C-alpha cells in the first residue's frame, strides 16, 4: 500500500509526463518483446539491434504496415547520465520492423550501455564493449562461444549463466534457430526412442519469410537468450538450420530444383539479417549474404569468422555418416569457395598477431566415427564436416603450417571435443576446440555410448563430453585456455553450471595440455 508521501510523489510524476502516458496507449502489448542485442564490435563502436513486435507470433509481429521511428541512446555509464551518442532510426515493415544502428565515434576497449524507445515504451539497457585499438598490445582476452539452440530440445539455462560471465564478446557459430516443424513426439536422434519436446515449435517446416520470422520471434522471446544478448556483444554466423538441415550452396537434401531452393534460402537469409545484430555489409541480396569477416583484438588475436555453407560443393558419398568413398579426396571440392579461401590466405599471411583464430561451423578434425569395435572395417566419417573435403582441408593446412599459433573454434556436433589437426604428413599444425550445444540433444551425459571407441580410434582427440553448455576462452600472449562450461540439465529449469575441463595451448607449440 502507498503511504501519503509515496502517493504524492507518484501523482506528481504522472502529471509531469502526460505525453508519455498518451504515447503508451498506442501499444496493446510491450513492443520490445524480442529484446535488444549488440554485435560486431570494433574499436570505435558496434551495432545495436531491436525489433518492434508487440504480438511476436502474429503476422508482422502485430505491427501495421507503416514505418515507425525508434529512438536510440548510448551512454558511458549504466544510469545514462553520460550520453555519448543518440539518434533515431526507422523500423520498416520490409525488414520486419527491425532496427540496426551502427554506432561509431566511441573510445576503444571500454564498456558502453544502450537502449531504445518507441511510442513511449523503453527497452531494458544493454551492455557492449568496444575492441582495443588494433595497434595496442592487450595482455588478456576473455570471450564466449555458443550455438546450437534447438528450442524443442531444452531450456536456455546455459545462456543465463553466460550472461553473468565477464566477457569481451560472444562468438555464435550458428544454428540459432531450427527449421523443423513442431511435433508433440518424435524419435530421439541417436537411439530412436520416443522423445517428448521440452517445449514445442510453433508452426510447420519453414519455407517462407513469414515462417522464418515467426520462428526467430519464438526463439528470441526466451528470457535467458535475451539476458545473454543484453550482457554481451555477439559475433553471429550461421550454419545449416537457419535455412535447412545440411544445405550447401543451392543444394538441399530433398532434391529441390536449385532455382526453387534459392527462393527459400533468400527468405531465410533475410530473416537472419532481420534478427541478428550485424552490420550493413551483411545486408542480404537475391544471390547471397556476406557473412565471413574478421575482427582484431589489438595485436593479441585476430578472429576470422568463416562461412562454410554458401560456397561449398556438395557433400561426398551422398552425405550422412558413411564409410569413406573416393570423392572425399577430390581436388575440385571446396569448402569456402575461391574468393573466401583467398581472403583467408591474405589474412594469415600478415603474421602480426600473437594468435590466429578460425571461428567457424563444422568440425575440421578428421574423426573416425565408428562407435563399436564390431562395426565395418572401413572408417566412418561425417560427410558434412571438413574431413570429407580432404582437398580444401589440406590446402588450408598448408597455409597454417609453420604458424604455430592457430586455434580453430567449431560447433555443430552437440558435444564438447578438443583435439589436434594433423596435416597429410601426420604433423600437428593447429588445435581445435568444439563447443557443445546450448540445448540441442537434450540433457546429455558425461559420455555418449561408444565414446570410448571413438577416443581409442582417434589419438588426435584429447577430450570428449556430451553435456550442454558453452565455452569461455582465456587468451594471453603465452597461452590459449579454453574452459568447457556445462549445465547438468536443460529439461527442467535452474540447471547448475560447472567447469567440466580446461585445456590449454602454449604459444609456439601445437599441443593441448590439461590445465
Tally of helical segments = 9
Going by CATH, the homologous superfamily of the largest domain would be Alkaline phosphatase D (PhoD)
How much of the residues is beta strand, in percent? 25-35%
Helix content: 10-25%
Q: What value does the average pLDDT take?
A: 94
Largest sheet: 17 strands, mixed
Count of all domains: 2
As residue ranges, the low-confidence spans are 1-25
Structural class: alpha+beta
CATH class division of the largest domain: Alpha Beta
Radius of gyration: 23 Å
Can you tell me about this structure?
This protein has 515 residues and is an alpha+beta fold. The chain has 2 domains: 4-129, Immunoglobulin-like, CATH 2.60.40.380; 144-514, Alkaline phosphatase D (PhoD) (Purple Acid Phosphatase, chain A, domain 2, 4-Layer Sandwich). Helices cover 18% and strands 28% of the residues. The protein is built from 9 helices and 26 strands. The strands form 4 sheets. It has a 17-stranded mixed sheet that branches. β3 and β4 form a beta hairpin. α3 packs parallel to α5 and α4 (209-220) packs parallel to α6. It starts with a helix and ends with a strand. Mean pLDDT is 94; it is low at 1-25.
Please describe the topology of this protein.
Blueprint: H1 4-15, H2 18-24, E1 36-42, E2 45-51, E3 68-75, E4 83-91, E5 98-103, E6 111-118, E7 121-122, E8 126-129, E9 141-146, H3 157-163, E10 170-172, E11 186-187, E12 194-195, H4 209-220, H5 223-231, E13 233-236, H6 258-275, E14 293-297, E15 301-305, E16 321-323, H7 338-349, E17 355-359, E18 380-382, H8 390-400, E19 406-410, E20 416-422, E21 428-434, E22 444-445, H9 451-457, E23 461-475, E24 479-487, E25 497-506, E26 513-514
Parallel strand pairs: 1-13, 9-10, 10-13, 15-17, 17-19, 19-21
Antiparallel strand pairs: 1-2, 2-5, 3-4, 3-6, 6-7, 6-8, 9-23, 11-12, 14-15, 16-18, 20-21, 20-23, 22-23, 23-24, 24-25, 25-26
Helix pairs in contact: 3-5, 4-6
